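Weekly sync, protein design subgroup
Attendees: M.S., D.O., the rotation student, P.L. (late)

Item 1: inverse folding check
M.S. brought a backbone from last month's batch and wanted to see whether the design step gives back something sensible before we order anything. D.O. pointed out we never logged the input encoding, so this time it goes straight into the notes. Structure tokens as presented (583 positions):
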């Protein structure tokens, strides 16, 4: 696998003899990198390939890495990513500094190649010959190399060579420094300053030291004129709205003719100019005149564009908040529900005033902080039917028959009623001789501990998949859909185990219930009634655990859907806003 990057820019100076001519942290874009778009990727998560690449960026959130999966590593010589310095950077000595992450058993080498203006190779420096990091969470390695040649440096390549797909090598925080002044303008000179050696323009010229243009020797009128260079000669020139004249500040009020626009008043974002002898208002660069926006793609798809005081402004819809812009680093328009955390048992809704509020699910209520289960049984007379009592459950309730009463099958819910049943104590009509007999029922000691261990295990499931842990896993996943799918699969497996426990408890309840039903009430050991209640309590625990785990699966599926939208929006924005750095 071979990788190379084209990067260019002039961003500033550093102390000493080094002059920063390029820097990229990859936070907003690729900073002008060119290469095969399927091989070199800007990323902010764990690289997808197993046992290779970093989990986090060196600085900030993003880095650039080579995706070594087949067929990339097989055709690595055809996948260069190279850096070409602009023509105004003329230096024969450079210093490269960047963070490198080389984790993957297939890595064979990482090289830096430098070429001159004619494409002649000046150096092929091998930085490493195997992986450096041993996992995806180790510290990055800082590379700091200085190169000095007899000819001008023009192109730099970063080369990674691998024999198979386990070689996702990453680069971050890339800086390139020119050592010394390089080639200054003919009208400039190299000077030692507190910021190191740098080119500065001679007296009478202005510029960055590499390009120096003549400057007007006599000051121009600061309001009516500007300094213009034509054919290498600098002179003061009156602005269009002020007619003609010397434009010199020393001429005072007569430097340019009177304001020909007269009483014409323009907005603060426009200037008055003469068009065929008629004064008109011309908007300044970056502004539009009129009521309609003209800039394409300025606003996100959830915002509308309006012209306010001559400035295009993006306004989010009533149900959203943000700056409305469709640009890297902007907030765009986000749902107001993103500001709320309604928990597992609630959902966010917008009222008629588009204010976001939490609405609890059925059979839950808001305790002022989050949604909790409503204990309907605390309400006197909740069960309306005769001979019934209320049994609360997580997220619901049931109206049960009292001892020695059987349910009326024509009633249900809160209106369930029960009538006396001389034969079956727990509400089941049965043929006791055919269904069950005391001889075939295990002793009470068999049932007492039948599900105790399982009940404790089920409670441990809630500790393992607590709301806090699930949120932490979501944060660690950073919209990695594969990791989210694994989390969903794991919780689903725990839910299946809980359901098996719940079915076993239910079967034990049926056996005990049938035994109680088929024996005279006055002859039953009271311990059987205690056992029946105990098994019912265990069944409620399993139901509560199952419901809680199901809600966490729903939460993760919602997070997965949100991540799919985020990834889709990032790719669309990258296509719309990506452009090379300008000089």
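Designed sequence read out in the meeting:
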């Amino acid at each position: 696998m071979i990788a190379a990057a084209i990067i260019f820019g002039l961003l500033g100076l550093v102390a000493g003899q080094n002059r920063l001519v390029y820097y990229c942290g990859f936070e907003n874009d690729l900073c002008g990198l060119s290469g095969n778009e399927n091989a070199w990727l800007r990323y902010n998560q764990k690289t997808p390939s197993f046992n290779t690449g970093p989990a986090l960026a060196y600085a900030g959130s993003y880095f650039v890495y080579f995706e070594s999966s087949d067929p990339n590593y097989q055709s690595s010589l055809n996948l260069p990513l190279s850096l070409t310095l602009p023509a105004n950077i003329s230096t024969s000595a450079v210093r490269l500094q960047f963070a490198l992450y080389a984790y993957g058993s297939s890595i064979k080498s990482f090289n830096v190649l430098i070429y001159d203006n004619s494409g002649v190779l000046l150096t092929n420096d091998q930085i490493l010959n195997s992986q450096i990091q041993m996992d995806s969470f180790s510290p990055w390695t800082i590379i700091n190399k200085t190169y000095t040649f007899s000819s001008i440096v023009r192109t730099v390549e970063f080369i990674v060579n691998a024999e198979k797909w386990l070689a996702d090598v990453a680069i971050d925080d890339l800086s390139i420094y020119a050592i010394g002044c390089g080639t200054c303008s003919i009208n400039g000179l190299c000077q030692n300053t507190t910021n190191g050696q740098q080119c500065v323009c001679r007296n009478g010229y202005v510029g960055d030291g590499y390009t120096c243009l003549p400057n007007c020797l006599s000051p121009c009128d600061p309001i009516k004129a500007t300094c213009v260079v034509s054919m290498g000669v600098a002179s003061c020139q009156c602005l269009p709205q002020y007619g003609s004249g010397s434009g010199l500040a020393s001429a005072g009020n007569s430097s340019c003719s009177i304001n020909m626009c007269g009483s014409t008043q323009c907005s603060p974002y426009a200037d008055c100019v003469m068009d065929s002898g008629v004064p008109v208002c011309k908007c300044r660069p970056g502004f539009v005149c009129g009521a309609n926006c003209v800039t394409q793609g300025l606003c996100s798809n959830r915002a509308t564009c309006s012209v306010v005081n001559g400035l295009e402004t993006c306004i989010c819809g009533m149900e959203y908040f943000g700056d409305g812009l469709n640009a890297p680093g902007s907030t765009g328009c986000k749902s107001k529900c993103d500001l709320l955390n309604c928990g597992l048992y609630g959902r966010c809704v917008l009222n008629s005033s588009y204010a976001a509020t939490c609405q609890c699910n059925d059979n839950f209520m808001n305790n002022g902080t989050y949604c909790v289960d409503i204990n309907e049984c605390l309400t006197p007379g909740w069960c309306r039917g005769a001979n019934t009592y209320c049994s609360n459950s997580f997220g619901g309730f049931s109206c049960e028959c009292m001892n020695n009463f059987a349910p009326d099958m024509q009633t249900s819910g809160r209106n369930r009623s029960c009538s006396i049943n001389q034969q079956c104590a727990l509400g089941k009509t049965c043929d006791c001789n055919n269904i069950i007999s005391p001889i075939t029922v295990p002793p009470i000691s068999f049932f007492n501990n039948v599900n105790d261990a399982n009940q404790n295990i089920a409670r441990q499931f809630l500790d393992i998949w607590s709301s806090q842990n699930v949120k932490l896993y979501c944060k660690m996943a950073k919209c990695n859909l594969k990791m989210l799918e694994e989390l969903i699969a794991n919780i689903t497996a725990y839910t299946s185990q809980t359901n098996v426990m719940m079915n076993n408890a239910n079967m034990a309840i049926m056996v005990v219930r049938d035994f109680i039903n088929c024996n005279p009430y006055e002859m039953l050991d009271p311990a059987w009634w205690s056992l029946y209640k105990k098994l019912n309590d265990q069944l409620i625990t399993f139901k509560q655990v199952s419901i809680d785990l199901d809600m966490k699966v729903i939460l993760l599926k919602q997070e997965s859907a949100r991540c799919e939208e985020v990834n889709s929006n990032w790719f669309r924005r990258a296509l719309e806003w990506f452009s090379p750095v300008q000089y």
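Discussion: Helices lie at 432-435, 444-448, 452-464, 467-477, 481-517, 526-577. Residues 1-16, 422-440, 578-583 have pLDDT under 50 and may be disordered.
Action: P.L. to compare against the previous round before Friday.
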